[in-house]
Design brief:
511 residues; 3-stranded antiparallel beta sheet; 25 helices; 16 strands; 13% strand
């Protein structure tokens, strides 16, 4: 008894090389949307994770995508930058059959039992069951195009090729003179158009019939080509009124429109950053990263997304935290090599090293441009420290108003006596710890308020306390070329005439 097509293994399928053998196997044509639907149903029933590694969308975006697939819909993803749109689209190829048969030599990836192109139809008419076929792997059934103003109808749909006409000695009335564009050549594939609003309106119009009726028109040729394509479009929500718009008839033909979002909490952001950060071949086992530092990295992105200096329409990509975390590890790694140490703990001062990761990932509004990208990044770091400070320590502002019980009195008094503290980026661990423990009362604050404090993180929290006091305007914090300097707030204000102070302030302005 011969096996059914559905029972034949992928390895054995590859041995089927002709149309006759394919028919004998019991193969039946299936649309790409049907493939996606049936394979999704199998994965849902077996409780497989279709979009593995896409965190934060489990109860929002992914169910919407799955419903769209079950409905056999084309999809428009409304996304800000860095919201995993490309990864989601590419992962949909896992829902395709592993291999599908194609007429060998066909430009349009014709199904042998349901040919579209003139080439495939004529070849099958000539060779019949001896028509050669090949097997197309699902990883190759994906096409992606970035919509730019210079994209033409010829690029997407096709055009008459005069060279082909001359070479093959064909009349311009012959369909074979057509050179097909990306869309027809993506027949039986997932086709992604990124930033759809950037596509000129007249180009968007060319997609109308493909989506609805399956007709395409090329230089006077009206071809009935019921293309079998799963379309996925992406657009920035603000682009409807910013750079361009999706024309209404096209928008109406895209059945499901799904809105994505950034991680809804810091924990989810940390999970994404930990997964995506490229830390292979790095001495991670020699660099200790307190959980608070991971929270700070994510909080910086949160602050950026609500900052008056950052264009919220453009969005703040998840790549900001990923790049920032990689730079943070590099700052600690560099210090290991400089001081020939076996282990180190990241420091709050290491956040200076992530500024390049921030400046390249945020789009500033006019006020932000006036401030300067470096200073905006420095400000975002400061705001993140201020936001998380009160989760570990009492508010300095509230304690200052209280008549007694202010834990910050002793260290602030030490600075008030004219003492200064420099925390340098390349400082060895021994010097770093000695400098922090020289501030009276600082260790007491940390041991009193930080619950379950690991001994290895004590100095990290001591430094965090200093940065927090500076963000609450209890201390002066100046950015040096090689680190940070803390001093009394009022003595710093009274010494504004000091030439050294002016130089430091100019450095901060330059940043």
């Amino acid at each position: 008894m011969s096996m059914k097509y559905s029972e034949i293994s992928s390895k054995d399928l590859l041995h089927i090389r002709t149309l006759g053998e394919l028919k004998a196997s019991g193969y039946e044509p299936k649309s790409i949307k049907e493939e996606l639907r049936l394979n999704l149903i199998k994965k849902i029933r077996s409780k497989e994770d279709v979009f593995e590694g896409i965190w934060g969308y489990e109860d929002t975006v992914i169910p919407d995508i799955e419903r769209a697939i079950l409905s056999r819909h084309n999809i428009n993803l409304l996304v800000l930058r860095g919201q995993a749109k490309t990864r989601i689209a590419r992962m949909m190829t896992a829902l395709l059959d592993e291999y599908v048969p194609v007429v060998a030599g066909s430009e349009l990836n014709d199904d042998p039992l349901k040919p579209l192109s003139t080439f495939a139809r004529e070849l099958i008419a000539e060779k019949g069951d001896r028509t050669p076929i090949f097997w197309w792997h699902r990883n190759d059934r994906y096409t992606e195009k970035l919509a730019t103003p210079d994209v033409s109808v010829a690029d997407l749909i096709g055009d008459v090729d005069p060279i082909k006409a001359a070479t093959m000695k064909l009349s311009y009335n012959d369909e074979r003179v057509i050179h097909y564009g990306l869309v027809p050549r993506s027949n039986r594939s997932i086709f992604v158009i990124n930033e759809l609003p950037d596509l000129q309106a007249r180009i968007q119009v060319a997609l109308f019939n493909i989506l609805q009726e399956g007709d395409i028109q090329i230089r006077g040729f009206k071809l009935r080509l019921p293309l079998d394509i799963q379309f996925i479009f992406t657009a920035n929500p603000e682009d409807y009124t910013n750079r361009g718009s999706i024309v209404t008839p096209l928008k109406d033909r895209i059945e499901s429109q799904i809105i994505t979002h950034y991680p809804k909490d810091i924990e989810m952001g940390k999970r994404i950053t930990a997964q995506e950060a490229k830390l292979h071949d790095r001495p991670i086992d020699r660099i200790h990263v307190p959980e608070l530092m991971k929270d700070l990295i994510e909080q910086i992105a949160v602050e950026a997304r609500s900052s008056e200096y950052v264009d919220e329409k453009s969005g703040v990509s998840a790549r900001l935290t990923i790049s920032a975390y990689e730079n943070l590890i590099s700052a600690a790694e560099r210090r290991l090599y400089i001081n020939h140490e076996e282990r180190t703990v990241v420091r709050i001062a290491d956040l200076i090293g992530i500024i390049p990761a921030i400046t390249g990932k945020v789009e500033l509004v006019y006020e932000g441009e006036q401030e300067g990208a470096g200073l905006v990044a420095y400000t975002l770091i400061g705001k993140a420290i201020r936001t998380l400070f009160t989760e570990y320590f009492p508010s300095p502002e509230q304690k200052k108003k209280a008549k007694e019980g202010n834990p910050y009195v002793v260290p602030l008094a030490w600075f008030g006596e004219g003492n200064e503290l420099d925390i340098l980026a390349s400082q060895d661990d021994k010097t770093y710890k000695t400098a922090l423990h020289a501030v009276p009362g600082l260790e007491t604050i940390v041991t009193q308020y930080v619950e379950h404090l690991p001994e290895i993180e004590k100095e990290f929290y001591m430094e965090f306390a200093l940065h927090g006091l500076a963000e609450f305007s209890q201390l002066s914090k100046k950015l040096l070329e090689t680190g940070m300097q803390f001093r009394d707030l009022f003595s710093s204000m009274f010494n504004m005439g000091d030439p050294d102070d002016l130089d430091e302030e100019e450095e901060e302005e330059d940043l």
